[in-house]
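Justification of resources, computational component.

The compute hours requested in this renewal are based largely on the per-chain cost of generating structure records like the one below. Each record pairs the submitted sequence with a full structure-token output. That output is archived, and it is also reused by downstream analysis tasks.
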Amino acid sequence: MGALPVFRWRLAPDGYATRRQLRARDLRPGGQQVAAQLERPRRRRGPLVAYLYRVDLAKPVRPMTPARWAALAKANTARRICPECRRDAGYVIPTSLGMCVTCAFPDNSDALRSA
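The structure output for this chain reads:
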């Protein structure tokens, strides 16, 4: 197995695209291996690398089914429920806190309510 072809930043030939570029065209890699890579040199660190896939082997994005929409809505709702007080916080619970802001800082919430 040979090495991947490496192209300079912005000099990739037609027929190759990154994951984001494929998604913008409503395509996905579809199980294919990385076909090439782009490298952008940097001064003090190693180069930035972007992996490229062949557009002709890409497959169309799978459509969202009603069951997938329902599962996504359920997952997003679960991210809003505080595990401490079991209430809907009205926003996505920060993973750094692990609970809603009111439960994480009970002293500050009392001061805010009286003001």
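The first strand starts at residue 6 and ends at 8. The CA atoms of residues 48 and 62 lie 30 Å apart.
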